[in-house]
Design a protein that fits this description.
alpha+beta, eight-stranded mixed beta barrel
Length: about 375
Amino acid sequence: MRARRVITVVGCHAGGEIGNVVTGGVLPPPGATVFEQMQALRRDGDGLRRLLLREPRGSVACHANLIVPSTRPDCAAGFIIMEPTEYPPMSGSNTICTATVLLETGMVAMHEPITEFGIETPAGLIRVYAECKNGCCERVTFGNVPAYVVGLDLPLELPGWGELHVDVAWGGAFFAFVKASDFDLEIVPDQAAQLAELGSRITAAAAAQIPAQHHLRSDLHTITFTTFTAPPRAGGDGRNTTVVSPGRLDRSPCGTATSARLAVLHARGELEVGQTFVHESIISSKFVARIEGLTEMGPARAVRPSISGRAWLTGTQQLGRDRRDPLGAGFAVADTWRGSNPDWTIDVAAAPDDSVLGSRQHLDLAVLSTEAEGQ
């Protein structure tokens, strides 16, 4: 392969949700905070996300996390979350993956039995408590950003269906919650296609009809996810599946959706401070959640959630782009990348060699060679 640049990626998943971690080959974007760095990457270096997540290297079911130095003295590292079509400010499964990779690759020193450290996310500071044994990260528990309810039983007009009611809450993103049984569906793998298609429609309708604005940050707004809920099937306390853009289901119980659901359950008087809630995914993987306390989020009463789960490393890759490959910048096809975003396809004849990593006049994404990394 005649690649001029090499990116090192550690494969990882938490609860079945792939959250690969970029550990080498990309310099941090500019910015005074990780949120500003995320904005710079999205604006000037989005080719990195396309390279990692689109075909032929990635898929619609992959996320990638770019580790960057933290801009805060109380954090060991920062990371930027890249999903198939967006840059969310926070993700539970990606936090668990990133923390595990930081520890198991030695980027953060491991201390047994507990390693405690901070991670800076675009949404803010996250405290991590990792259970470690025999040189391995056995479990990651983190305190998420405060979660609060926007509204309960809000009316929503769904084209082709009629009126339904949704609960809307913030847990690191804005979620619309609906019961799967309201649509005669169950949260099981063989109904995944129906859930994903319906959930995408609900998300679009909710984003258009229900205002959602973070009480403390003007840059965080809009409902971006729909989460179906159901009774447990695998020994947990509840079951859920979250529809992720561009129209597929989160394989994990989704840490941010779980946090938002804790806020909803508390607002309904169904979960108290100090209680745990075991959340099942569509494949019956589990996160253990807990309301650690209460706080205020502007005018809203919020819960302080913690999420606990385990991640597993799947391997290490060194990725690059052959300059001769007209599809090397990444492409998407609407059989899996459902939707109408015209940016999903590329003009393979016009793609310049360096388009995959953005304009270096605005963002330096130069890649270290394996020799420079001492490998």
